[in-house]
Amino acid sequence: MVVLGIFSSLTYSTELVNLVKAFVGPLLVLVGAFIIWLESDELKLSREKDSDRGFDVQQSLKEQASKTGKEDSTQKTGSDRIACPDCGKEFDTERGMKIHRTQKHS
Asked: 47-87: per-residue pLDDT in tens?
């Protein structure tokens, strides 16, 4: 039995070596493609000017600030709000008030 185990491991070892050899080529191709992708991304970043990168961040912050300013100005005033008839709590929408009534007063 021991002889059979050694013999079978010897026959499988050549197949394993062939399998590893067959796997190394495609693996190297994938690793090379990944390295090229990383380098091209770094090249694109190095081509950008530092002032352009700063401008993009400043521009996006200004846009966000203007959007939040618009959202604050479009909020409903106290007279537009809908009050709960049971407790008097005010809501922006009638749907919100209905949800509140079913959850709190049912």
From this structure: 766 555 555 666 777 777 777 665 544 455 556 888 999 99
d(CA 56, CA 50): 10
In 3D, which of 72, 102, 61, 98 has the Cα closest to residue 83?
A: 98
Q: What's the pTM value of the predicted model, to 2 decimals?
A: 0.35
In residues, how long is the chain?
Answer: 106
Could you give all domains of the chain from N- to C-terminal order, each with its CATH number?
2-75 (no CATH), 79-106 (3.30.160)
Beta-carbon-side half-sphere exposure of residue 88 (alpha carbons within 13 Å): 0
